[in-house]
Write a structure and sequence with these properties.
This protein has 491 residues and is α+β, with helices and mostly antiparallel strands. The protein folds into three domains: 230 residues, HUPs (Rossmann fold, 3-Layer(aba) Sandwich); 77 residues, 2-Layer Sandwich (Uridine Diphospho-n-acetylenolpyruvylglucosamine Reductase, domain 3); 130 residues, Phenylalanyl-tRNA Synthetase, Chain B, domain 3 (3-Layer(bba) Sandwich), CATH 3.50.40.10. It is built from 16 helices and 23 strands. The strands form five sheets. The protein has a seven-stranded mixed β-sheet with strand order 5-6-4-1-2-3-23, with helices on both faces. Helix 2 packs across helix 8, helix 4 packs across helix 5 and helix 6 crosses helix 10. The radius of gyration is 25 Å and the shape is globular.
Length: 491
């Protein structure tokens, strides 16, 4: 039985190409049966030479159950020590975030947990995060989406592997086995796990689905509901893949960046597409603008489609997360409507490398080796929110600050200096972008009138030995700073 389950998981990993040889991954472990089962199965496969991965364990302590939460952390630490695997424990304050952001405990915990796992993966230079979602989790997710309202994309359920816009990759190796199979496996291998009493609390939506709704539906089913929904998910996943291909082609034909914080869809080309593709084009637009999809309902998508067909010029449609939409005869324009007050009065020092906030912006820096970079390819594909500089020509520290009267810089491609304000006007930059434009400078010179134009100072050349990449993007308020961490040493 044990070897059978291990082989099922090994086959699932191979068929879905979840790992590459020698890959380092972070395994999220709560101490519950599912994640302990994932750890034991993968460790057996690893030691048997059936998979080639390097495991780093990560536990997130939500501090929601007082001593029991600390007991989970201690249990996981003991488990990691027994298997001679490295472990990082992250401590997060769910209740504080839920109160501050007016979120449910479930939502706050999920957001903090994901951010914590991403932080561990980044610190450990791991290329993926493994979670213990299984066949029953997939069924519950599909039912949950049905209750909220979903299309075939939602019916595809939990994907075996998914990459988010921020580059993080999540892998689910257990989607082909059930909760009962995992618990039977642990029982036969005499492996203990922790039980979270809150998993029986049906005030939480997922628990209500698991303990009340699923058993009720299964009374009328000839086969396990999780198996039926797993088959449905596979079919919808294939349909969704086809739709993504069609959307990718449509995106190339009808989208363009108007300016920072704005995207345009060519109206005629957009309206010529089938409605499912139109919906996916809208979703892709929202994602490109770093606008979360959670608050967008069917009503919002239908309102956008109606507005795209019939809106009169100069009319706008307000959307969630500060986004707005307007239409002219040829174009559908999505943009933010920020105010100048979003930019802080005081300068902010930029970490090299690292990440800092400056009002609505996140400034992310990385130090690159010229030998690993293709400058011409970068120039051909770069957007207004990413710039490269010769790090050795910069005088540290770097700062982000508001524009000031009299600010001058040499715009890239120009031979003489220009006043920043006049440059924005002559370049016909919109008033909205002017309000959110800011300066990145060292103590002597302006490097970037962001997000409009980099300067000619500190340009990358053939003599550059270190490249400083600066990337800026908007970040929604609920995305929080990295939590505190405790790292147990490599064993």
């Amino acid at each position: 039985m044990n070897e059978k389950i291990e082989n099922i998981v090994a086959d699932y990993i191979a068929v879905n190409k979840l790992f590459s040889p020698g890959q380092k991954v972070v395994l999220a472990i709560s101490g519950g049966a599912d994640s302990v089962g994932l750890l034991q199965i993968l460790n057996k496969l690893r030691t048997a030479g059936k998979i080639d991965v390097k495991l780093h364990l990560a536990h997130v302590n939500h501090h929601l159950r007082a001593e029991e939460s600390d007991g989970d952390a201690n249990f996981v630490a003991s488990l990691a020590e027994g298997l001679a695997l490295p472990l990082t424990i992250e401590d997060v304050d769910v209740m504080a975030m839920a109160r501050r952001e007016k979120l449910s405990i479930e939502t706050a915990a999920r957001m903090l947990r994901l951010n914590a796992l991403k932080a561990v993966a980044k610190t450990q230079n791991a290329s993926a995060i493994l979670t213990a979602h299984h066949k029953d989790d997939n069924a519950e997710t599909i039912i949950h989406r049905l209750l909220r309202g979903t299309g075939y994309t939602g019916l595809a359920g939990i994907r075996p592997k998914i990459e988010f816009q921020d580059g993080s990759v999540f892998v689910r190796p257990l989607l082909n086995i059930s909760r009962k199979q995992i618990e039977d496996y642990l029982a036969k291998t005499n492996t203990n796990w922790r039980t979270d009493a809150t998993n029986a609390d049906c005030r939480f939506t997922r628990n209500h689905i698991r303990h009340k709704l699923v058993p009720l539906i299964e009374k009328g089913c000839q086969s396990p509901l999780s198996e039926s929904l797993s088959i449905l998910a596979r079919h919808c996943c294939g349909l969704d893949e086809k739709l993504r291909t069609l959307t990718g082609s449509a995106w190339e034909n009808c989208s363009r960046e108007l300016e920072a914080e704005s995207l345009v869809l060519q109206r005629e080309a957009f309206l010529a597409e089938a409605k499912p593709v139109q919906i996916e084009l809208i979703k892709k637009t929202l994602s490109q603008l770093n606008c979360g999809l959670r608050k967008f309902t069917f009503e919002h998508y239908n309102a956008i489609l109606t507005f795209a067909k019939s809106a009169k010029p100069d009319k706008t449609l307000k959307l969630p997360n500060g986004l707005m939409m307007r239409v002219d005869s040829d174009e559908i324009i999505f943009c933010y409507a920020p105010s100048e007050s979003e930019l802080p009065m005081q300068p902010v020092q930029i970490q090299l490398p690292g990440e800092v906030r400056f009002g609505p912006w996140v400034i992310e820096t990385r130090i690159l080796s010229p030998g690993d970079c293709d400058l011409e390819a970068f120039k051909a594909k770069k957007d207004n929110c990413t710039e490269w500089f010769d790090l050795d020509a910069i005088i540290e520290p770097l700062y982000a600050r508001r524009r000031r009267d009299g600010d001058k810089f040499i715009p890239f491609g120009h031979k003489s200096s220009k006043k920043a304000g006049k440059f924005l006007t002559s370049a016909k930059i919109s008033g909205k972008t002017k309000k959110i434009s800011f300066i990145i400078a060292d103590p002597e010179k302006i490097l970037w009138l962001a997000p409009v134009r980099g300067s000619g100072f500190c340009s990358v050349s053939g003599d550059t030995s270190r490249i400083l990449q600066i990337k800026i993007f908007r970040k929604l308020a609920q995305q929080q700073q990295s939590p505190q961490k405790r790292i147990l040493p490599e064993i």
